[in-house]
């Protein structure tokens, strides 16, 4: 029994129906009264694996969700006002004689003053800033193009709802008013709706959003609050008219008390301001957001309130929490959909056949919370490495203590240029390097072996790599042209027709 719809609920329903549908009776209950937290949603490349699991045709998916393609995230004003950098999905450069590329970039940068930023030696970055996109596999030493999607979250949930219904998932409309538990084990046995229906289940998946109806409201699992590191507790979101070609990337712009997102879709642009209400009022946040839109707003700004952190147990007894019911991390690195996906993937791997096994539950909780902690450190790094101190918010960030795990990682890199990602972290070395070096954290030295390479030889290698990336990016069509030809939505077709 899946409690709650939205992206999390229907992602769970679709995956279970595809993989275990012949052996399970799958039900989902949601209420139209409650609605979902649906804004423009940006994703990261692992979503391709989820779509492959479901056997989803990419053109159909892009068309039905008003999706666009995403090569990474542009960060504006994070290091300092007027500065920007790109966090791409692929690797920058390539290893030379088994040494990571960033050592060579550092050596070359010091010798000639840094002609290019680190991620300008990355195919996704070059293609993104040229507005290019297309399917481009790797060829020998030449990198392929890694990508994800930007889509309408409401349409995504609807798409997966239709997919699930076609595969036998039963949907119930209703608002849950009470939850029944076994008197001895405490396991949830049924949920009861406002109109008196009693819906039983053996395993319950809580996708009820921030309130965590089962995992918290019934089982009282508790919540680990990370506000001391990530103080943002509010967001206002609003869509606006699209007034220019679709960019193949998301943009995150640092602001006086947080940051704003810009997510370009086929039919509109999604926008939001994530902020701390200790430093900015809701009304001021709305005003600031409306003042930085590309086009006319299509609705009134909507307020979302949250507490950054996670449930202390995301699987307890026979309840597994997914999505906002399990925790919340601000969408700075587009991890919301991925956390749902990784939770589902682990649930499928650990799926109970004969009953709930405590050791399996414990391992699931360890794995999920490892993900949360890795992402938490990565998000904090964006704030902590910044040079900004121009507002009370940024001065507070500069003064706050870091988690030991993050401090050790940053100290090691600063002193030695060594960066060791821990398996199986979501954000690997390439992501940490993009953010750390993009925000100005440059090591004091590069590897001594790299320093022995002649400057002319190193410069030639760097120049050849840049030229190759430029050539590969130039071979791609424009992003908007690709979307128009490959998978235009009904909204985009109307826009094209009206434009003549």
TrEMBL record:
Pfam family example for this protein?
Trp_halogenase
Q: Which residues form a coiled coil?
A: none
Its domain of life? Answer: Bacteria
User: Catalytic residues per the record?
Assistant: 70
Can you tell me which residues bind 7-chloro-L-tryptophan?
70
Q: Which amino acid positions bind FAD, per UniProt?
A: 5-8, 324, 337
Keywords linked to the UniProt accession = FAD, Flavoprotein, Nucleotide-binding
Q: Name one GO molecular function term.
A: nucleotide binding
Q: What is this protein called?
A: Tryptophan halogenase
């Amino acid at each position: 029994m899946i409690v709650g719809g939205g992206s999390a609920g229907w992602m769970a329903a679709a995956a279970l129906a595809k993989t275990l549908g012949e052996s399970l009776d799958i039900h989902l209950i949601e209420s139209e009264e409650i609605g979902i937290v649906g804004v423009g949603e940006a994703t990261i490349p692992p979503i391709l694996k989820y779509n492959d699991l479901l056997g989803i045709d990419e053109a159909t998916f892009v068309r039905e969700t008003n999706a666009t393609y995403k090569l990474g995230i542009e960060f504006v004003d994070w290091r300092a006002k007027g500065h920007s950098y790109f966090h791409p999905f692929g690797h920058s450069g390539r290893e030379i004689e088994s040494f990571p590329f960033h050592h060579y970039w550092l050596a070359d940068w010091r010798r000639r003053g840094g002609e290019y930023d680190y991620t300008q030696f990355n195919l996704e970055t070059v293609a993104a800033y040229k507005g290019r996109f297309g399917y481009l596999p790797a060829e020998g030493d030449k990198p392929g193009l890694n990508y994800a999607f930007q889509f309408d979250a409401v349409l995504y949930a609807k798409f997966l709802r239709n997919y699930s219904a076609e595969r036998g998932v039963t949907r119930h409309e209703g608002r849950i008013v009470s939850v029944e538990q076994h008197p001895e084990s405490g396991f949830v046995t049924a949920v009861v709706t406002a109109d008196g229906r009693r819906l039983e289940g053996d395993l319950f998946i809580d996708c009820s959003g921030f309130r965590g109806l089962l995992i918290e409201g019934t089982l009282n699992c508790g919540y680990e609050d990370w506000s001391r590191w990530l103080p943002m507790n509010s967001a206002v979101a609003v869509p606006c008219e699209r007034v220019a070609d679709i960019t193949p990337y998301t943009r995150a712009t640092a602001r006086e008390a947080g940051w704003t997102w810009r997510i370009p879709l086929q039919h509109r642009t999604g926008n939001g301001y994530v902020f701390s209400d200790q430093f900015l009022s809701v009304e001021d946040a709305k005003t600031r957001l409306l003042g930085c839109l590309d086009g006319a707003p299509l609705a009134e700004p909507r307020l979302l309130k949250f507490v950054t952190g996670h449930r202390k147990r995301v699987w307890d007894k026979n309840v597994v929490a997914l999505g906002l019911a399990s925790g919340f991390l601000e969408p700075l690195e587009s991890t919301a959909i991925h956390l749902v996906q990784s939770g589902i993937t682990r649930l499928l791997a650990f799926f109970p056949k004969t009953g709930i096994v405590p050791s399996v539950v414990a391992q699931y909780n360890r794995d999920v919370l490892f993900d949360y902690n890795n992402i938490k450190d990565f998000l904090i790094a964006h704030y902590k490495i910044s040079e900004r101190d121009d507002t009370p918010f940024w001065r507070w960030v500069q003064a706050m203590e870091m988690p030991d795990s993050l401090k050790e990682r940053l100290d090691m890199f600063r002193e030695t240029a060594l960066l060791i990602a821990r398996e199986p972290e979501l954000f690997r070395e390439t992501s940490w390097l993009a953010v750390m070096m993009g925000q100005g954290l440059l090591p004091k030295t590069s590897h001594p072996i790299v320093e022995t390479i002649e400057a002319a030889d190193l410069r030639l290698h760097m120049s050849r790599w840049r030229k190759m990336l430029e050539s590969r990016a130039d071979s791609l069509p424009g992003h908007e042209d690709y979307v128009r030809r490959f998978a235009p939505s009904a909204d985009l077709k109307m826009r094209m027709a009206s434009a003549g």
